[in-house]
Amino acid sequence: MNHHWPYPALIAHRGAGKVAPENTLAAMRIGAQNGFHMMEYDVKLSRDGVPVLLHDDELERTSNGQGLASALTFAELSTLDFGAWHSTAYAGEPIPTLNSIAAFTLANQIHSNIEIKPTTGDEAQTGRLVALAARALWAQASLPPLLSSFSEVALQAAHEAVPTLPRALLIEEAVPADWPERLERLACMGLNLNDRFVDQALIQAIRQAGYTVAVWTVNDAERVRELLDWGCNGVFTDKVTTIRPDTL
Ligand code: G3P
Ligand code: MG
């Protein structure tokens, strides 16, 4: 099967990279102001099962909280500050729900790559609940969100819960030789790969096999062009003010 990439080629990583606090609504607004029509963000569950945007399992790096985010209810997470760690301009920024990000992206014609980022041990539940929420929230969207994950357990659970949502397998390091079997097993449209482990031959092999490939995180404009020239379908960047869709 030949999988088609219907999304834009340039994707804002975590909303706006490092320009604004990652995975917040404020970041999405900065990405949108810079002309991005697709954003990637990380989603996991609060203790009471609410899908929220957060990269790390722990709260320390990107908030004034402590410990595992999954130990707190959404109401408890909502009392924390997810912006002051970045800069005073963003002090008081709350943790966003997937619901609020769906509302913002849909209202602004922005496509989504929802990275399912389960708290360790919560892979199946996160895959299932994020997929169910995404189906409901994006029911009227012009394009469905692309679900991706490093966790094959999460992707499998997402597939079983909502087989119609497109999925991509994320791979952190060197791409294993059995990548076609993995994509086939998980019914994924393609691979989302670490830039440090891709070359032209690999990109071409993935495309020739009929799968899509997107590469993260690319913060050099020449490298973005090279990857797209090689046939990459998508490139994720942090540099939303300089590597903009209108500069490609
Ligand atoms: O989804 C691409 C990229 O975000 C994966 O790595 O650690 O930035 O979530 P990470
Ligand atoms: Mg991510």
Describe the 3D structure.
The structure is a single chain. The chain has 248 residues and is of the alpha/beta class. Strands 1-2-4-5-6-7-8-9 form an eight-stranded parallel barrel, surrounded by six helices. Strand 7, helix 7 and strand 8 form a beta-alpha-beta unit. Helix 4 packs across helix 5. The structure holds SN-glycerol-3-phosphate (G3P) and magnesium ion (MG). SN-glycerol-3-phosphate binds next to strand 2.
Short description:
With 248 residues, this protein is α/β, with parallel strands linked by helices. The chain contains eight helices and nine strands.
Helices and strands in order:
Blueprint: E1 10-13, H1 25-33, E2 38-45, E3 51-53, H2 74-77, H3 98-107, E4 111-116, H4 123-137, E5 146-149, H5 152-161, E6 167-171, H6 179-186, E7 190-194, H7 200-208, E8 212-216, H8 221-230, E9 234-237
Parallel strand pairs: 1-2, 1-9, 2-4, 4-5, 5-6, 6-7, 7-8, 8-9
Antiparallel strand pairs: 2-3
The structure holds SN-glycerol-3-phosphate and magnesium ion (MG).
Protein name: Glycerophosphoryl diester phosphodiesterase
GO molecular function, one term: phosphoric diester hydrolase activity
InterPro entries: GP_PDE_dom (IPR030395), PLC-like_Pdiesterase_TIM-brl (IPR017946)
